[in-house]
């Protein structure tokens, strides 16, 4: 049996005033969600917090005690508002200082004469952390305990995720199948509920959308780690949809 | 003096498995962030949680005790996975049932014969809540205590936000000014920190970007509710940038 016990979970902490003010539109949540799902990790919660140390520490501690992994984005640049590394060190109660390995990485791109105090901020790494290479602009992320700290710039974050992904423990991949009902959500909600109550081990989501023909339509998304149970639920949903159409005299899925 | 005491804050709770699986890319966080900022409400925190009642209740209770308002999106449709209204009733410890006002709104769009049990789910409203009209598809949101429950479909959510906005208490609007440094973030990080340490009542964010000329550039975003303090900090930042360029022999902002 493939059960919940094998699930590997993650929390995501997005750090940055610019997301909360709306000045910058986050592009990382959707990317990370899709990426983790694809490798068999369930993203279970996301939080967005401002550049305030106590807020970052509190959210990080709440998430890291609860999920297999926590990913963070943002706040690891060279300016005074980049406080993620210090907040992570505080959350883990470890010291933080310029890391010679990180400094060496910065020097691959930055001349020694330009490695001022601001840029050296990007080499400040909590004690005991492993570095996460940044092939885009060198300044590394890091991995401490179950927390993986990444940049906020999407291209850099994506490269860092590629770096760490092979090292992550992954669960049995969540399988997903979509049945398009060719019906309004409200017309299938009742019978769908009955199917969901029988197939309790398969997650069934209902997502209305406007079809290209201008008529309301509904996608039913079934998710399970067990192929046989997923197939059984998909068959039940297809039959339910056919019955709804037969009863209404409409053309089914 | 215009102080923090006058700030009106908000939390945002995004509800839905489809956001966490990456199947649907959220388009509401950025919209709501920008909208609230524009009317003088500070979005202080965002959480994304799955369609699990205990998770919704816990997040809602954490946010509603902390911020002036909490906005939620998602989970108010006609299917079994739409559990937001029930979760909100549970969080407030009030009863929930089909609300005659909400039922009447549904009947503006749905024939009585089609108002099945599934569609009536959309009229289930916690006791004591005010309805939020939905000019797009009629099924209302609602407002209970300091919590405003909205649809997840962006066009409907946006219409609901327009409905409630005139009734919200708003703070003194946050003013914002951007100085483009024409310099790499790492070249101004040190002197910028010095400016930020003097102008502690102005929030100063630093956002690197790649200029159209292909050179790294940096936007410095200054935010305050006090026009005079903002102007003083902007002047200090402009002077700092000019000094950095003079010292490096480069062309300034």
From TrEMBL, chains A, B:
Signal peptide: none annotated. Coiled coil: none annotated. Residues 11-171 form the MoaB/Mog domain. It comes from the Bacteria. InterPro entries: CinA, FLAD1_M, MoaB/Mog-like_dom_sf, MoaB/Mog_dom. Gene3D superfamilies: MoaB/Mog-like domain. SMART domains: MoCF_biosynth. Pfam families: FLAD1_M (PF24102), MoCF_biosynth (PF00994). This is Competence/damage-inducible protein A. It comes from Ancylobacter radicis.
